[in-house]
């Protein structure tokens, strides 16, 4: 990192001693803080690639403040780089243990990394007992895949419109599912969830990426099959999809398959 050496007035002459180190280091740190402020502004402005590049440069320069670690850790989490995000967020949380934001980011890091029991403990501390209970009930394992012997092709239902497919749920009951990568965990309509015996753990408020806030019931689905591909131990959120999507599609929608499941499969749409 380039820096200009600036001393205090009267501290040196052209032939005098070098500038004392303290003023120089203070100015160098001010430059880093300015770059950190810029990275934070880029992040909040949605310019994540630029914010990430600036954080990479700050890391190379040795920046290690709690604010920087929290920001860089969140950026790494958004990239799904959980191994890189964890040490940054752990260090940031150690310096600011009262921060609910950092605790939530670390919980999400553990959840994405499959460290479900550690995530459950943090979510419990954050006052999200239903989600914590669901994660704890997995015993540390979910999305257990039985791969098919050949690629599975699922036709879309209807001649046009959003991607709507059929899947077999629980004991083999057939349901219609919308594919929406903007949704995280799989959504399941209460009618179908009750019919296939989804294990409930309590409800909580949720804000969907697009649309109004609502409440979902956290649950675990024993079995979900896409053709010959079988997934066991699927975390779900029970939500009234039939009512919410009535009139939007020509067929009743029994649920939504989101990125939580799709990210674990080699999928082509």
Give a structural overview.
The protein is built from 10 helices and 8 strands. The protein is of the alpha+beta class and 269 residues long. Helix 5 (100-112) packs antiparallel against helix 6 (116-125) and helix 6 runs antiparallel to helix 7 (129-137). The chain has a 6-stranded mixed β-barrel. A hairpin with a 3-residue loop joins strand 2 (164-169) and strand 3 (173-179).
Layout of secondary structure:
Elements: H1 21-44, H2 48-60, H3 66-78, H4 82-95, H5 100-112, H6 116-125, H7 129-137, E1 144-146, E2 164-169, E3 173-179, E4 186-188, H8 190-195, E5 199-207, E6 213-226, E7 229-238, H9 241-244, E8 255-257, H10 259-262
Parallel strand pairs: 3-8, 4-7
Antiparallel strand pairs: 1-7, 2-3, 2-6, 4-8, 5-6, 6-7
Number of helices: 10
Q: In sequence order, what are the helices and strands, one letter per element?
A: HHHHHHHEEEEHEEEHEH
Strand arrangement, largest sheet? 2-3-8-4-7-6
| Quaternary organisation of the protein chains | single chain
Portion in beta strands = 15-25%
Task: Please outline the major beta sheet.
Answer: 6 strands, mixed, barrel
Overall spatial form = globular
Low-confidence stretches: 1-29
What percent of residues adopt helix (DSSP H or I)?
Answer: 40-55%
* Helix-strand category: alpha+beta
Quick one: how many beta strands? Answer: 8
What is the average of the pLDDT values?
86
Instruction: Write down the Rg.
Output: 25 Å
How far apart are the first and last residues' alpha carbons, in Å?
Answer: 45 Å
């Amino acid at each position: 990192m380039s820096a200009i050496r600036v001393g205090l007035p009267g501290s040196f002459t052209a032939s005098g001693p070098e500038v004392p180190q303290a003023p120089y280091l203070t100015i160098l740190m001010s430059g880093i803080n300015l770059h950190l402020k810029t990275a934070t502004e880029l992040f909040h402005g949605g310019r994540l690639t630029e914010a990430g590049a600036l954080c990479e440069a700050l890391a190379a320069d040795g920046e290690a403040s709690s604010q920087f670690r929290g920001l860089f850790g969140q950026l790494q989490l958004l990239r799904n780089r959980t191994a890189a995000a964890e040490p940054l967020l752990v260090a940031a949380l150690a310096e600011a243990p009262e921060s609910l934001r950092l605790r939530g980011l670390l919980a999400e890091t553990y959840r994405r990394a499959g460290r479900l029991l550690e995530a459950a403990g943090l979510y419990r501390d954050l006052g999200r007992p239903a989600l914590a209970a669901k994660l704890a009930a997995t015993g540390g394992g979910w999305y257990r895949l039985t791969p098919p012997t050949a690629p599975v092709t699922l036709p879309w239902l209807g001649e046009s419109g959003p991607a709507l497919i059929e899947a077999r749920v629980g004991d083999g009951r057939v349901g219609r599912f919308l594919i929406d990568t903007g949704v995280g965990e799989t959504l399941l309509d209460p009618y179908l969830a009750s019919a296939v015996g989804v294990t409930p753990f309590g409800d909580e408020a949720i804000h969907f990426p697009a649309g109004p806030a609502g409440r979902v019931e956290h649950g675990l689905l024993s079995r979900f099959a896409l053709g010959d591909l079988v997934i066991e131990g699927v975390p779900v959120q029970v939500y009234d999809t039939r009512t919410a999507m009535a009139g939007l599609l020509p067929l009743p929608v029994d649920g939504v398959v989101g990125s939580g499941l799709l990210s674990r499969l080699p999928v082509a749409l």
